Amino acid sequence: MKPIQVGLLGIGTVGSGTFSVLQRNQEEIRRRAGRGIEIAMVADLDMTRAKQVVGDAAKVVGDAREIIANPDIDVVVELIGGYGIAKALVLEAIAAGKHVVTANKALLAVHGTEIFKAAAEKGVIVAYEAAVAGGIPIIKALREGLTANSIQWVAGIINGTTNFILSEMRDKGLDFDVVLKEAQALGYAEADPTFDIEGVDAAHKATLMSAIAFGIPVQFDKAYVEGITKLSGADIRYAEQLGYRIKLLGITKRADKGIELRVHPSLVPAKRLIANVEGAMNAVVVHGDAVGTTLYYGKGAGSEPTASAVIADLVDIARLHGADLAHSVPPLAFQSNTLGAAGKELPVLPMAEVVTSYYLRIRVADEAGVLAKITGILANAGISIDAVLQREADEVGGEGSTQTDLIILTHDTREGDMDQALAEIQALPTVLAPITRIRKEELN
Fold first, then answer.
1. pTM of the complete model
2. Which residues are within 8 A (CB) of 46 and not within 5 positions of it... i.e. 6 or more apart?
3. CATH of 4-137+303-341, one of 3.90.1300.10, 3.30.70.270, 3.10.410.10, 3.40.50.720
4. Annotated active-site residue in 205, 222, 247, 440
5. Would you kindly state where each structural domain of the chain is located, as residue ranges?
6. What does the pLDDT look like over 327-336, one tens digit per residue?
């Protein structure tokens, strides 16, 4: 049987890893796919570097549209990234009848509905295992392995840069700014790390997992996104003393009124497996009604881990190539004609409607009656307190300090009610600094 002919758009870190793994494990991949998979063409603006990577094994061109126009190319692998030219090339490839494999979570989180619709109309596959959690096969698990389940929630450490920073802050007792510079020096963080540290990258991935888990269209614009830039070493120390660790989580959850879709720092009990995921590793926890809780752990980025996911998609396409795709697994696991109906029944909830518990750190004047005023405001808002800790003034501000930190843990409450209560507490003259609020996720 003729090998599948692949055109690679971009041969940077992931592209070169894909080429290398495919060459190295060619025979094993052929046996699993039932036919060969060959990278026949590579497009990259740096043609000299591309030729150094592929040698004589593939034709190198500077224009990606040469690959799309080639009738012998069966699959286009998009590894350019971003929303701009990548979107145009993916849609052109689909229009030309090519299957598409992409690692571009940003593109699919923002434009996935349009892209999947175009692919369905043209009868081609858009596969994107590499777009979420690198080498961890979480897309396949959600789309296929857990298909019998009603998914209740998904929570994941899905950005390695932020997890590395938080791990270093905890291990070394350093503040965010110091560790960010270390992460950049080690290559874990980009020169412009905004998408990582502000939670945008994790939100792209959480958006895709939410759509698969709950049968809703991709709706990145409705995700709540909060990064780690405001976290301090003090909060990480206090969390540790309380039996928690702080992780940036992407969370999507089935609630009474709709679907929660949010990314933010969270206190997670230290006894949970996901709380012990350190460094640049990723992990995703999925809770289904039939299977219970399952955990997926591994490298979320890197040349060959991500290449592993790209090639897994190529193998799936090779197995289906030439077959009737009408009954293949849909891109978002649910048949496209049911997504609209599901979306109407299950709206993405605004953050004010989310119910969770909280960690509060309040810097206050060390004087009588302060705690009573604060707990009174919380009680009037219907917010139940789980625990209260008051740090020694000397510990917070040094010897002779007249201010201290109050640490309050709450039970579950509606975010909108917490917003109102915190605004009232912040206005008290004895509250001396902006209140730190971190959501707490038990992940039971």
1. 0.94
2. none
3. 3.40.50.720
4. 205
5. 4-137+303-341, 138-299+344-351, 352-440
6. 788 888 887 6
Q: What are the tens digits of pLDDT across the range 64-98? A: 999 999 999 999 999 999 988 999 999 999 999 99
Question: 350 phi and psi, to 5 degrees?
Answer: -65, 155
In the block, tokens 């060390």 appear at: 366
How far is the C-alpha of 200 from the C-alpha of 196, rounded, in Å? Answer: 6
The percent of the chain in helix, strand and coil, each rounded to the nearest 5, is: 45, 25, 30
Between CA 36 and CA 135 the distance in angstroms is 22
205 is catalytic: yes
Q: What is the CATH number of domain 352-440?
A: 3.30.70.260
49, two tokens: 């570097």
DSSP codes joined into one string, 96-123: TT-EEEE--HHHHHHHHHHHHHHHHHHT
- Cα 221 from chain centre: 15
